[in-house]
């Protein structure tokens, strides 16, 4: 492999073209000031020639005012078309503009959620007493609950739903606000109240279907401290379930208010803790009610389920027309994050990256989800509704994983105050969005919120790194360069391949290098197709064969004259001279197994797996300097995971894992000194049969394994033998290899950047 990625900085305030199409997020270069919806519409008409918008609402978040609009044609109010102008609450300056515009034909069949619901409410029960002169008052009481669930509280993974739960699993809380009328207490306060759904038009046909699990309004003369007994549920005695939902929603809403977000200013969150006989729970914004299922197990016994559904209500309250685009997967991921974030405050050690551990194992099918799905990758152009699998990973986990991993990293670095900071950043970023949002849009908005809320912290850096790891955010421009440098007279020419990953035309791009007099400059539009540039790199005399050498660069990416240019600092790693291997890589020239479509398997796909064997008789041990050779061709390298298993033991070393490699060829020496995964093989004997496994999770593209191998490095070729010509055309990193390609190879993370030798620094973006 000749080339590896120069990991350019993602545009923190990334922007695209001046005219909004479909979904986009825009951070204006020039200052604009808006104090009303009318002024916001004037700005939109001037900037985008965008007229005919209808006022939807004006909302506020911690730092901002959001002026919301939809397109003024039939059914548009029910459609996901959105324009959101976010303005700083103090300065009135426009901070970002989100647009999701649709053709009128796309909204012809859109309908508002007008499903009716018949509720039994506390007011209906105590209303006659109030009319008779009894006082309605808020009093405090004690509640007995699982917090968050018995399995977690006891740290007992063998616990089953039918077991009698020990007292140690319960938590008793006092001073909880409830409503009292005429000596009877109701699970109701200004933030949350328990209701009973008597009938609900679930399918939208206008007919109310009766709830088979009507339990009535739960009351008490004193405290709500009953313990759970699942036999009670059969008789619709559900005080424990109502108490669970009431306590956890109330606690979470109060915490949300502490963060600065108020979703109950107009009315409290309503819930029915014992709805229907389905193993499913749902939040309904239009009806302002959360219903918890009662299938194989009662969902409200698990605080993760309760808080997940509340996460939906928070999401829906901040962005009322939350639908289309990637909103399904983002919403589920936000719900999972909110549940895991709450639990992480009190329990950081017992399975912190899993949600629904109690309800999820007591269902008709296992429905736990994780928040550390390191292999999940975003695929631009794919659809992301809720609960589906894309490229082998649950899409809900694709969104929750980077959020939760940022939370853990921030707390580890900054302490407990970071917990509130990260929670606040996420909801502030979501509040600036509208219908039809994609994961990249949402990620950019969250990164911008981190910059604005905590400008002196590294929170935005943490979000960028995690979103990039899952391909949700990508570099505006990707570079590929030689892996090895062959130097003559202290300098060498390097050919760079450039790829525009932004999805839009780049107006100008400039790169300046510390160790080169050359300046990369593209004054015409940089399209998505590959372009090449050649620079002369000056290498210090002190650099020896086998040394790592970095080329430092600064770049400016300008999408157009109305957007904030993106500035980036990065370091490009090289190795001086090419290594000589003790074993020639094995030539395979073998077609890989592509994933296939099927009704079963991962999200409708059956993964393609193919294994290759390499038997070596060499009894030498892998020493301090060895390499794994890998030469593979594939039009979509992000489909592939490639692992290596040594002859002895069951260790499986990951070489590539669904990486966002733009080129269709990967031909590299993965060297132990610069690759932590490969270095794990140090001390292994070469003798025996090695296994290379290639897994393909996406349908549509096949590829070829050209060659592979593993060997010690016996030395390096001498710089004096190289010329400028050989540097550009015979720099595949293995002089002895047969069938090595001289074409540019791929490597989205590069041979060093996987493991800390690519140094990416975030810089504040300035006009």
From TrEMBL:
Classification lineage: Bacteria, Pseudomonadati, Pseudomonadota, Gammaproteobacteria, Vibrionales
Segments for region (Disordered): 717-745
InterPro entries documented for this protein: Galactose-bd-like_sf, GlyGly_CTERM, P_dom
Stretch forming the signal peptide: 1-18
Low complexity composition-biased segments: 724-743
Stretches assigned to coiled coil: none
One of the protein's GO biological processes: proteolysis
The protein's name in its UniProt record: Peptidase M36
Domain of life: Bacteria
GO MF, one annotated term: serine-type endopeptidase activity
Transmembrane segments: none
The P/Homo B domain, residue ranges: 578-719
């Amino acid at each position: 492999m000749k080339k590896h990625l120069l990991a350019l900085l993602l545009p923190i305030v990334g922007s695209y073209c001046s005219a909004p199409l479909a979904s986009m997020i825009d951070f204006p270069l020039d200052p604009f000031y808006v104090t009303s919806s009318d002024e916001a519409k004037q700005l939109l008409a001037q900037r985008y020639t965008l007229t005919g918008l209808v006022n939807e609402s004006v909302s506020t978040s911690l730092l901002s005012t959001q002026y919301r609009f939809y397109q003024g044609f039939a059914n548009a109010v029910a459609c996901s078309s959105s324009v959101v102008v976010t303005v700083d609450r103090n300065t009135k300056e426009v901070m970002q503009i989100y647009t999701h515009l649709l053709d009128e034909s796309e909204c012809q069949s859109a309908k508002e959620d007008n499903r009716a619901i018949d509720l039994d409410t506390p007011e209906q029960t105590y209303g006659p007493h109030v009319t008779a002169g009894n006082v309605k008052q808020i009093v405090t009481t004690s509640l007995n609950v699982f917090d968050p669930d018995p399995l977690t509280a006891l740290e007992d993974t063998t616990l089953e739903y039918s077991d009698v739960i020990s007292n140690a699993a319960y938590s008793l809380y006092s001073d909880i606000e409830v409503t009292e009328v005429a000596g009877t207490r109701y699970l109701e306060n200004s933030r949350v109240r328990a209701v009973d759904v008597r009938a609900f038009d679930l399918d939208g046909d206008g007919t109310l279907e009766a709830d088979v699990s009507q339990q009535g309004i739960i009351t008490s003369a004193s405290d709500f401290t009953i313990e759970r007994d699942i036999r009670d549920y059969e008789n619709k005695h559900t005080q424990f379930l109502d108490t669970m939902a009431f306590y956890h929603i109330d606690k979470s809403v109060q915490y949300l208010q502490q963060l600065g977000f108020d979703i109950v200013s107009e009315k409290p969150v309503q819930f029915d803790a014992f709805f229907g006989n389905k193993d499913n729970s749902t939040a309904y914004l239009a009806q302002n009610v959360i219903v918890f299922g009662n299938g194989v197990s009662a969902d409200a016994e698990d605080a993760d389920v309760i808080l997940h559904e509340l996460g939906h209500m928070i999401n829906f309250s901040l962005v009322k027309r939350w639908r289309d685009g990637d909103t399904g997967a983002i919403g589920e991921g936000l719900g999972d994050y909110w549940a895991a974030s709450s639990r992480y405050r009190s329990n950081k050690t017992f399975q912190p990256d899993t949600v629904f551990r109690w309800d999820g194992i007591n269902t008709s099918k296992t429905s736990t989800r994780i928040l550390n799905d390191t292999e999940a990758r975003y695929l631009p152009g794919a659809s992301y509704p809720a609960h589906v699998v894309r490229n082998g990973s649950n899409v809900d986990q694709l969104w929750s994983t980077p959020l939760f991993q940022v939370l853990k990293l921030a707390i580890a670095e900054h302490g407990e105050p970071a917990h509130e900071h990260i929670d606040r950043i996420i909801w502030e970023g979501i509040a600036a969005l509208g219908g039809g949002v994609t994961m990249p849009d949402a990620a950019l908005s969250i990164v911008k919120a981190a910059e604005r809320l905590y400008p002196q912290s590294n929170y935005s850096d943490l979000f960028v790194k995690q979103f990039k790891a899952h391909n949700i955010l990508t570099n505006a421009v990707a570079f590929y360069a030689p892996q090895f440098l062959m130097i003559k007279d202290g300098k060498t020419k390097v050919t760079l391949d450039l790829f525009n990953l932004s999805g839009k035309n780049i107006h100008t791009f400039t790169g300046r290098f510390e160790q080169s007099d050359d300046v990369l400059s593209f004054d015409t539009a940089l399209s998505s197709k590959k372009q090449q540039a050649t620079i002369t790199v000056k290498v210090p005399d002190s650099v020896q064969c086998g040394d790592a050498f970095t080329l430092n660069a600064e770049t400016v990416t300008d999408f157009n004259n109305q957007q904030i240019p993106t500035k980036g600092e990065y370091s490009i790693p090289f190795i001086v001279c090419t290594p000589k291997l003790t074993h020639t890589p094995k030539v395979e020239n073998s077609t890989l197994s592509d994933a296939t479509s099927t009704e079963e398997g991962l999200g409708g796909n059956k993964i393609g797996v193919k294994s290759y064997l390499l038997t070596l008789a060499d009894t030498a041990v892998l020493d301090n300097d060895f390499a794994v050779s890998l030469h593979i061709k594939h039009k979509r390298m992000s489909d592939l995971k490639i692992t290596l298993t040594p002859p002895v033991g069951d260790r499986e070393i990951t070489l590539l894992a669904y990486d966002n490699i733009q080129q269709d060829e990967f031909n590299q020496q993965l060297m132990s000194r610069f690759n932590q995964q490969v270095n794990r093989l140090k001390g292994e004997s070469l003798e025996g049969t090695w296994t290379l496994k290639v897994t393909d999770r996406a349908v549509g593209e096949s590829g070829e394994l050209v060659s592979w191998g593993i060997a010690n490095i016996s030395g390096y070729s001498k710089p004096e033998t190289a010329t400028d010509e050989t540097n550009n055309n015979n720099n595949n990193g293995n002089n002895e290899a047969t069938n090595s390609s001289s074409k540019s190879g791929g490597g989205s993370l590069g041979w060093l950047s996987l493991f800390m030798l690519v140094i990416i620094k975030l810089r504040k973006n300035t006009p």
